[in-house]
Amino acid sequence: MNTTLLAGILFSLIFTELTDLSPGGIIVPAYFALYAASPARMAGTVLIALLSMGFVRLLSSCMILYGRRRYAVYLICGILLKWLLSTAGFSLGFGSFLSIGSLIPGILGRECERQHIFPTLLSLAAVTAATVLLEMLIRIF
């Protein structure tokens, strides 16, 4: 676990320096690599991140959101949406709605807004794949 987190953070930093694109934040690819065997959690995290983006844009039309305040609203939206979807999924008999962590969707949503959805998700996929590949190589040797 620690090697995966360390590798994910290092790959994120290197990728950002080389391409000037953020893979969803420094820590997000590391956590995605930890949950690579659970695509439902990864998809749930991306869904909550995109929903957070929509809610922050909606709130921006009636509130002044910028800087740290905007970032905090992203984190709060991610946490509340995860809770809401988990509660709704449990009450409908689908089990709890799965996502990676509580803060990861908000961090990813903010990065998707900052540099657009497609480049962020593509960068996230590349860094996550590199991290998983390195972890597999470490396990082999």
Features:
141 residues; mainly alpha
Could you please describe the fold and organization of this structure?
This protein has 141 residues and is mainly α. Helices cover 77% and strands 0% of the residues. It has helices at 2-19, 28-34, 39-60, 67-91, 104-115, 117-140. Helix 1 (2-19) packs across helix 2, helix 2 packs across helix 6 and helix 3 packs across helix 5. The longest helix has 25 residues, at 67-91.
Instruction: Work out the helicity level.
Output: over 70%
Number of helical regions: 6
Estimated radius of gyration: 16 Å
DSSP, total strands? 0
Distance between the termini: 16 Å
Order of helices and strands: HHHHHH
Overall structural class, as computed from helix and strand content, comes to mainly alpha
Gross morphology is globular
Average of pLDDT: 92
Largest sheet: none
Unreliable stretches: none
Q: How much beta, percentage-wise?
A: under 5%
How would the blueprint of this fold be written?
Elements: H1 2-19, H2 28-34, H3 39-60, H4 67-91, H5 104-115, H6 117-140
Compact overview of the structure:
The protein is mainly alpha-helical and 141 residues long. It is built from six helices and no strands.
